TrEMBL record:
Name by which UniProt lists this protein: Putative Fe-Mo cluster-binding NifX family protein
SUPFAM superfamilies, per database record: Nitrogenase accessory factor-like (SSF53146)
Source superkingdom: Bacteria
Biological classification of the source: Bacteria, Pseudomonadati, Pseudomonadota, Betaproteobacteria, Neisseriales
């Protein structure tokens, strides 16, 4: 399983997945909850690869991901990721390693916090190509 976590400079779970440039990619094939987490691959998206602006006309560094974890995401982002074969899980957990450990253990994550940018994205999505 491949899990990508949207982050703010690789340190905290990002509050807006569609605008996140820094991602932690975990390759977890055969991983068990008792094992230590493997080191993630650090992904830095170019400005044109940020999902908020990506035109869906080329392969993307997040292609092949099974699950995306973020603090918030707009409907357009969730739809685009589902079209690319990934589910989106939103959480209020700030620490990427803690969030991933809880996911792998089957534990519930804290609910996402309110994010005004998600509301603004919903308004933008009403008038966009999404």
């Amino acid at each position: 399983m491949k899990i990508a976590i949207a982050t703010d400079n690789y340190t905290r779970v990002a509050g807006h997945a569609g605008k996140a440039r820094h991602w932690l990619l975990y390759l977890l094939h055969g991983h068990t909850p008792q094992q230590l987490l493997p080191a993630p691959t650090l992904i830095k998206l170019a400005p044109e690869q940020v999902m908020h602006h990506f035109k869906d006309d080329a392969p993307h560094p997040l292609d092949g991901v099974d699950l995306v974890v973020a603090g918030s995401a707009g409907e357009g982002f969730i739809r685009h990721m589902r079209e690319r074969g990934a589910d989106v899980l939103l959480t209020g957990e700030d620490d990427p390693a803690t969030a991933l450990t809880q996911i792998l253990a089957g534990e519930a994550l804290p609910d996402p916090r309110f994010d005004v940018t998600t509301t603004l994205c919903k308004l933008r999505d009403l008038f966009s190509r999404h």
